[in-house]
Design goal:
Largest sheet: 2 strands, parallel
Structural class: mainly alpha
Strand order of the largest sheet: 1-2
Order of helices and strands: EHHHHHEHHH
Helix content: 40-55%
Shape: globular
Radius of gyration: 19 Å
Length: 186
């Protein structure tokens, strides 16, 4: 705790996380105590309800259970892309609104993967209703098909001398480089 913020140079960046940061009951206390959090979740819930699906909130805040097998099932439901992405979107938007209401003035916004969409909304590029629509639609579009024979492929993060990696992969024509994260990670 500090009585006032620390001095900063060059502005403040609001950063938004991507898929993988979701977990069951995330932000529960915030959702219970801050209306902007609840409003954001209700906005996303409405998208699910409009398509006659179970509301997103039932995956983020599932019924309490004591059976370990059922707990794992609940956790895996939230890990599904069609649930994870809009859940992260609702959480990020609600939290950003709380911070703005408290006086935060971000000079820049940025996000990782799905968080890029939240950053666009926070920067004012997207209207709120469009953001919630896109958060839901993106999760649906990126979800794995309901096909037991579907091959989703694979991903490998490589750390090391990235500049030599392309040459080393010439014997593997099916392997494609993507996401040049830094000079040391692809």
């Amino acid at each position: 705790y500090a009585q006032k913020g620390k001095p900063y140079q060059n502005g403040i960046v609001a950063m938004f996380s991507g898929q993988g940061s979701q977990y069951k009951n995330m932000g529960k206390e915030l959702y219970l105590n801050f209306p902007p959090m609840l409003e954001s979740l209700q906005s996303v819930d409405q998208r699910f309800i409009d398509e006659n699906s179970e509301p997103l909130s039932s995956f983020v805040f599932p019924k309490p259970i004591f059976d370990e097998k059922e707990k794992k099932k609940q956790e895996s439901q939230l890990q599904l892309t069609q649930h994870a992405q809009p859940a992260i979107g609702a959480f990020g938007a609600g939290l950003f609104q709380i911070l703005k209401d408290g006086g935060l003035k971000a000079n820049y916004t940025a996000g990782h993967s799905f968080g890029e969409l939240t950053a666009l909304w926070a920067a004012g590029v997207l209207e709120e209703k469009d953001y919630y629509h896109l958060a839901h639609a993106r999760g649906q579009a990126m979800a794995a098909p309901d096909d037991p024979d579907f091959d989703a492929g694979a991903m490998l993060a490589v750390m090391g001398k990235v500049d030599q990696l392309e040459q080393e992969l010439t014997d593997f024509p099916d392997v494609k480089l993507a996401n040049m994260n830094s000079k040391k990670q692809v």
